[in-house]
Specification:
This protein has 2 domains: about 100 residues, no CATH class; about 230 residues, no CATH class. It is about 40% helix and about 10% strand.
């Protein structure tokens, strides 16, 4: 029987490898720089166990990093424990040494998550991240785009109770039935960052949650057909108090849209596209497409944490240190105002609805100004 080849230190991963840097390594390196670790530790520290009461707790900073890793890569608690033993990259990110430190087991990871759930710290983390982004000048709060996404839950009854999760419901979208919950978000129309998150069961209509997705300082709101009312369309537009809410015009039964209505719907779709970016990051970048726990509360805590990390991921190019400073702009922006996006192009929300009112219909323009 052939004996295994003795591995070098570089091969075992304890030393940096030469060659290509993996996408996982790039993500961890970027997030290690942009996550406000000190401020989050200060937030959680009053609730974290203190030394002197039984077995010494793991360092808070280490547990925070271990809590965020499964959000990015989809590990369960047992899988996270094994990954810390198997993957040197994750140990380095968590600040653990395989020769000196004790690796936290799955129950330790579980208890930390329960601690955050018990004190509703996921919402506090989301608020603290947004506070950091606002201090960097990345959120203007003059417009909001609202939307919701369905998140699937296991529909099988092959479990101990022989029942589905009673807090999840089903709803029909198009011709397809979905079982699970909904995440409703309000996104800053200029920066694309999420400022509000609300979680409900799947059957709750989008329009009923619109007010919960607003921060109260916006002047204009954009939504899809799920937020439709007659006074929110091009031809019958009326303000709702001081707020302008715009939704696409629906095609009448047996009729057709006018060319002006089609052009307005296309223009509105271009503005609304920014709200889809956080959903792409959560579902495709982070791989969160199905709930992991039973009940709305636990899953809502994870979803809020995911959107906090999504904000940091979306803003990472403007937050990464450049020449020893944290620059709130992309290199392409070259100091332009904030409504110039990372690509260097002007944000469509201002281009369409603020800077070029002559492109809009006369009725809508006068209503918006009034």
């Amino acid at each position: 029987m052939r004996s295994m080849k003795q591995l070098s230190l570089a091969e075992t991963g304890f030393l940096p490898k030469a060659g290509k840097q993996t996408r996982k390594a790039v993500l961890l390196a970027e997030m290690a720089k942009v996550v406000p670790w000190c401020r989050l530790e200060t937030l959680i520290k009053p609730f974290y166990p203190k030394k002197g009461n039984g077995r010494p707790p793991m360092p808070l900073g280490t547990m925070m990093r271990i809590h965020f890793i499964p959000q990015w890569f989809g590990y369960s608690d047992p899988a996270m424990e094994e990954a810390l033993h198997d993957v040197p990259l994750l140990r380095r990110f968590a600040g653990l040494d395989a020769f000196k430190d004790v690796m936290p087991d799955e129950s330790t990871i579980l208890r930390f998550r329960h601690l955050l759930d018990k004190h509703d710290l996921a919402v506090a983390i989301f608020a603290e991240v947004n506070a950091v982004l606002s201090e960097k000048g990345l959120s203007m709060k003059r417009g909001t785009v609202v939307d919701a996404t369905l998140i699937a839950a296991p529909s099988s009854t092959k479990n101990e109770d022989k029942k589905r999760d009673p807090e999840m419901t089903q709803t029909k979208k198009g011709n397809q039935w979905h079982f699970g919950m909904k995440a409703h978000i309000g996104v800053d129309a200029e920066s694309g960052l999420i400022h509000t998150v609300a979680c409900t069961t799947a059957k709750v209509a989008d329009i009923t949650m619109m007010a919960s997705c607003l921060h109260g300082e916006e002047a204009i709101v954009f939504g899809d057909r799920g937020y439709h009312k007659k006074n929110r369309t091009l031809e019958d537009f009326e303000k709702e108090g001081d707020l302008s809410v715009l939704t696409p015009t629906k095609k009448p039964a047996g009729g057709a849209l006018t060319e002006e209505q089609k052009a307005f719907n296309r223009m509105l779709s271009a503005v609304r596209a920014i709200v889809e970016h956080p959903f792409r990051v959560v579902k495709r970048q982070f791989g969160f497409v199905k709930v992991r726990y039973r009940g709305l509360a636990k899953n809502a805590g994870q979803i809020v944490t995911l959107f906090a990390l999504t904000n940091l991921w979306l803003a990472r190019k403007r937050l990464l240190p450049l020449v020893g400073e944290v620059c709130p702009f992309s290199m392409k922006c070259r100091g332009k105002p904030l409504y110039f996006m990372e690509s260097g192009r002007k944000s469509s929300v201002f281009h369409v609805f603020y800077d070029s009112p002559r492109r809009n219909s006369g009725v809508f323009r006068e209503s918006l100004r009034g």
